[in-house]
From TrEMBL:
Transmembrane segments: none
Entry keywords, A to Z: Hydrolase
Pfam families (UniProt xref): Beta-Casp
Identification of the protein by name: MBL fold metallo-hydrolase
Length: 84
C-alpha cells in the first residue's frame, strides 16, 4: 500500500481510498493522512463519530495542523463528515 500512497501524493491522479481505522489512531489510514492532508486538492470523509482526544476528532474539528507519529502535518485537505 505504500506504493499507492506515494503515487497518490505525487500525482494529480483521481482516486477514492477507503482506509479503516475508526479514530485514525493506527493502521493504513495514518499513512494516507500523513501523505494526503497537506494537499488542498484532497478530501477526507469521515463516516460518522470520532471520539474525543483522537487524531480523527482533531481533524474533524478543523485543526490546521496535527501531529502524526511525531511529525507536524498541515491540514489543507477538505474535511467532511457523514452523519447517520
Amino acid at each position: 500500500h505504500l506504493k499507492l500512497v506515494h503515487r497518490l501524493a505525487s500525482t494529480a491522479e483521481a482516486a477514492i481510498v477507503v482506509a479503516a481505522s475508526g479514530m485514525c489512531e493506527g493502521g493504513r489510514v495514518v499513512t494516507y493522512l500523513e501523505a494526503l492532508l497537506p494537499d488542498e486538492r484532497n478530501d477526507v470523509l469521515f463516516a460518522g463519530y470520532q471520539a474525543e482526544g483522537t487524531l480523527g476528532r482533531e481533524i474533524q474539528e478543523g485543526a490546521s495542523e496535527v501531529d502524526i507519529e511525531g511529525k507536524k502535518i498541515k491540514v489543507k485537505a477538505q474535511i467532511h463528515t457523514m452523519s447517520g
